[in-house]
From TrEMBL:
Keywords: Cell membrane, Membrane, Transmembrane, Transmembrane helix. Its main location: membrane. The lineage of its organism: Bacteria, Bacillati, Bacillota, Bacilli, Lactobacillales. Belongs to the resistance-nodulation-cell division (RND) (TC 2.A.6) family. MmpL subfamily. The keyword Transmembrane helix applies. Residues 68-368, 665-799 form the Membrane transport protein MMPL domain. This is MMPL family transporter. Residues 935-957 have a biased composition (Low complexity). It is a multi-pass membrane protein. Residues 904-932 have a biased composition (Basic residues).
Amino acid sequence: MQERIRKLHHNRIFALVFWLVVVFAAIVTLPNVSTIIQYDGQPQLANTSQPVKATQIRNNWGRNLNGTYTVNAVFNNPDGALTNKQLAAVNKSVSELQKRSNYYGIQKITTMTNTPTSKPQLFSKDKSTEVVQLAVSHNQGTVRQITEQLKNQISTIGLNTYVTSPEIISDAANEHISSFTLIVILMTLLIALVAMGILFASLIAPIITFLTILISYISTLSLATNLAYHWNFAYSEYTPIFLLLGISLFTLLTSFWFFRELRNLVDDGMESQEATSKVIRDLGYRILISTLSLTIAFGSLMLFDFSTIRAFGLLGIGFAITGIASVSLVPVFSGMLGASLFWPKKTRPQLKDHKFWHNLARFGFWQPWLAIVVVLFVVGPFALTYRNQLNYNNTQDIPNNQAVQGARVLSAHFGQGKSTPVTLYIQANQRLDDQNQLFQLDNLTKKLRAQPGVSSVTSVTQPGGQPITQYYVSNQLSSLNENLTGVVGQLGTVRNDLKSDSVNLRQKTLKNEIKRVKKLTSQTNNLVSDSNTLESSLQTALSRSSVAGSSSTSKKVTSYINQLNKVNTELNTALTTLTTLSSDAGTVNTDTSAVHSNLSNYAETLKSVNDSLNSSRKQVISMQKSLNNIYLYLGGLQTSEAAKALYLSPTQIASGDFQQSLVNFTDEKVKATYLTITLKQEPNAQNTARTLRHLKTVAASQLRGTSLKDAKLTFAGQPVVAATIQSQYQHDLPRVLLLVLGIILVLLIIFSRSLLQATYWFLTFILSALAGYQLTHLLMTWLTGNGVFNWQVPLLAFVPLTVLAVVELTQLALSYRLNDAPLLDWLLPGIKEVGQTTRHSLFIIIAGVLGLLAAESQVLTAVALITILTAIIFNLALPIMAASFGKLSVILPAKKPYEFFSNKPKKRNPHRRKRRKTRSRRTRSQKRRRKNPATDVTTPSTTETPSSSDTPTESKE
């Protein structure tokens, strides 16, 4: 039994069983990758970010809108304006949608029919497009399912219909990425097979490499997906792709090293298990330090808060698994198969002496300064002109999706920012249906609309994006002026009637005059009522106005009211007297005894009435003059800025239209509201973030010092999400680069035990990467016309570039460390030795990223081009720069400092000619010693002066 166990252990069967168990468990527990991409693929924003806070507000909105998102159903007539028949068809479709609202999870439907005040936002100016807004519950089903159902439901004959929203477009982007992920995986694995088959002219070796890649990839992907599914770990929509990219490239390179060494040993007659063990001992350290570098570098990304960057930390686990698989899984098959691994080719391929790197290194060794200048002149302009132009919109790669087309229709007929509005939520401690609060909200609406980059703003006071005239003082003053004109006319009539009554008052017409006075009294009573109303309106208008002189005008109004009341009192007295007079006059003919007395009373009463009427007429004339002054004042006030202020009376607030606006724009407690801001441009990295910062500052400043000064402001919408991603990404990306590159540089210095040389090599890689990035930018601009990369391109390209740097620089570092010769003696043969396999590494790197081109994605195409161009530039520049800086690092320190940095003129030396001859002889002898270092037994000349310069030999470093 022990012998069997020993034999199984010797043949590494236990390692094979272990990996079979691991891959079986990974396959069984692997969740649906497409579902994970759909739900967890988008960046997870911090809980303190504006979009997350806005989501929390929306989830507690009330009015049956908790946990909903807004969907736009777009009805478009491509041939022109919507006809009445087509509008009727749209209404019919909406009615059918209303009937099935429970099935679709629709909590609210907003149309221009049930919300007339919002018509400008729902019906385009060219009358060709109508929008119906739907509030759909998140709990009803997936965004993809609901979208497909709604698209079928709103389909209308003769019209183009779309269902769109930022959520639907994001889901469409994830769906597109998910659709080509499998294609990229299959193409990458297939190309890996072909590449290994070409390198070794074998069928078995590529299959072993394929199995190693597949097992490492499935194990890592299952772990990453389960972490996202069960523990909400960071996950990116490109996680399956960048895991495959890093694992396949690293496995291809390590397998190439392994199979090349194994082929040499097996062909020399060594037994397969012994040869396998020797290869593991020889390459184990190299694979170990490469694995350690990549694991630590990418594993450190888990320390970042931004979810997309943190998701790349899973590569650290992937490289660790790949490194273990490379030294444990591949040897299982190599030990069992031996030479059969390279079937059908039986003879060892003849390795030619490739001198490409050697010739490049010779150029750098020959003229180091010239070589450095040439490299910087050729590569430098591309690297130094690096432009960080990134697009944070996820619609760049989406094909002809109906949601994207619907968004384009909205942009074409309503404005570019219509499909991606910005929402400003305002939470206050008091109710927002009071005149003072509404006044501040309206001022904020007008202030935001006046900002650059803003197309329109809708709010509770302006639901259609435009002010409602009857809610403003100017319109109310117009009505007051009309009433005032009527009052002035009535006063003129009263004045004339009073004058007529005072002249024509006689006994025979006394009854008629009583009727006229009664009518006059009724008119004055009406006048008093109108005046009271006028006084109230004037006081309100004056209280809202900041026009000078309001105090004096208010006094005039008060004086006018007092005079009018006095006239009314006198008229009532006159009416009473006239009634008495009429009664006395009626008894004159029947009561002869009292004739004289009654006539006397009649004369006195008649005189009193005349006096009273004359006094009333004078008062009316005075009132008419006062009202004329008030009329002129109100006319000026109506055209002033003060008249543009909002004033909602309790009656207007209680009206049906305004109550509907409150329902649409406030929460259930009427303590939170929102403003919808439509930008003039679609979200872009250049303007959106700056515009949003400006709007936030303006909103906070506008409410400062008002009744809403303590209100909480929260911005939401796709532009805000893009700006938040941009802010976090631009904050973390430099740190990511410094951390990862710093870790690799430190490890490279440790492995090579050389600070300067490792730094020179690493800076060459940085220069090559910047040049490759910029060249790709120019090439993509020429090919597609779009010179702006998606924001994930630098992160994705960082994966293969880091593998390239670690693999090639680690090989160079180990060659330098394991060679005991001086630096100048090592440079040319060492670089030449590393260059013998560089062409294979370059071929593997290029082949490894070609599978990305199968996706027809601008993002992955850019990543592939960046990798290929950087690899080519790096392999051209590295031997030149390594040789140049290597030689300079030896010869420069050996020079006398004052010969390079002193500007003082040399003194004349009488022995100048003699010393020149001495230096010439010494120089010729040194040249001979360089050709044959073994014969170098000379000592420095005793006649040499301190001012003479020495040319360092290779033994001096």
